[in-house]
Design a protein that fits this description.
α4 crosses α7 (98-121) and α6 (80-91) runs antiparallel to α12. By secondary structure, the chain is an all-alpha fold. It has one domain (16-252). It is globular and about 60 Å long. It has helices at residues 2-6, 17-43, 48-53, 56-66, 73-78, 80-91, 98-121, 130-153, 157-168, 171-198, 201-223, 229-262.
């Protein structure tokens, strides 16, 4: 983001105390969501975590309802296959353990609360686009995470570094993988925010659903994770439920926007 701002490829938003304070909560939940997702990835098969993270709409509906939002019956019904599919996938997962499951579940909670409070706390900063919003949330998240990482794992960094180099084989390969991981992850989020500004929510939800399919299939092919038939069925049902939820919430939003325009 600093490169984009300094090169003026992306206009830097005006900073103020109010803007920073509005981001403190969303950035904290953003940090919790990413840490717990990484914990989940480290404990179970890489293909399992995206399946559990497809249950994020369930948490979104529940938490939003507690905070005053209302949803039609069709939305509530659309989350049932998500719950069933995730449960079936978890029960039949070869690499299943509770640390991996809870990591993915906590990640869902963190990201849902980030989205809810981002929307609620940034009503007065509508001039800030999605990319700049994500950029500043990530920067504040880094400030949150760095001292915690030093305190919790600082004594293990040197040992872990040498173990990682030994596992990879070359230090240059290790640096390259870390660099590519960070760059591609940022580009993924950047393109997601930019795409959401240019296409309809329904089109975006279809692409997001296909993303989960591609991630799961790719990790199975690359890492050769064993997948039982019931596990694959549960994953498919969960992803289908996520797609149905996206359609229903998009229809709800379109109806709401249409009502506001008429009024």
């Amino acid at each position: 983001m600093l490169i984009l701002w300094s090169s003026k490829l992306q206009p830097c938003p005006k900073m103020s105390k109010e803007f920073i304070f509005a981001l403190l909560g969303p950035a904290l939940f953003h940090t919790i969501g990413h840490i717990s997702a990484c914990v989940s990835f480290s404990k179970v098969a890489v293909s399992f975590t995206p399946v559990i993270k497809s249950a994020e709409p369930v948490f979104s509906v529940v938490f939003s309802s507690f905070l005053g939002d209302s949803y039609p019956l069709s939305v509530w019904l659309s989350i049932l296959p998500i719950v069933f599919g995730c449960s079936l996938a978890a029960v039949t997962e070869v690499s299943f353990n509770f640390q991996g499951l809870w990591g993915a579940m906590i990640s869902n909670v963190g990201f849902v609360l980030r989205n809810i409070y981002s929307k609620r706390s940034l009503q007065n900063f509508k001039e800030v686009n999605g990319l700049n919003l994500y950029g500043w949330i990530s920067i504040i998240s880094l400030i949150y995470l760095f001292p915690v990482a030093v305190f919790v794992e600082g004594s293990q960094w040197i040992q872990g570094y040498h173990k990682a180099i030994e596992a990879v084989g070359k230090s240059s390969t290790f640096y390259l993988w870390v660099l590519l991981s960070g760059v591609f992850y940022h580009l993924y989020n950047q393109l997601s925010y930019e795409a959401l500004d240019e296409i309809s929510p329904l089109t975006f939800s279809v692409g997001n659903t296909m993303k989960r399919v591609v991630v799961i299939v790719s990790t199975v092919l690359v890492f050769r994770n064993p997948v039982r038939p019931l596990n694959a069925l549960g994953s498919a049902i969960a992803i289908l439920g996520t797609f149905l939820y996206s359609q229903e919430t998009s229809a709800k939003k379109a109806k709401k926007d249409g009502g506001e325009k008429k009024s």
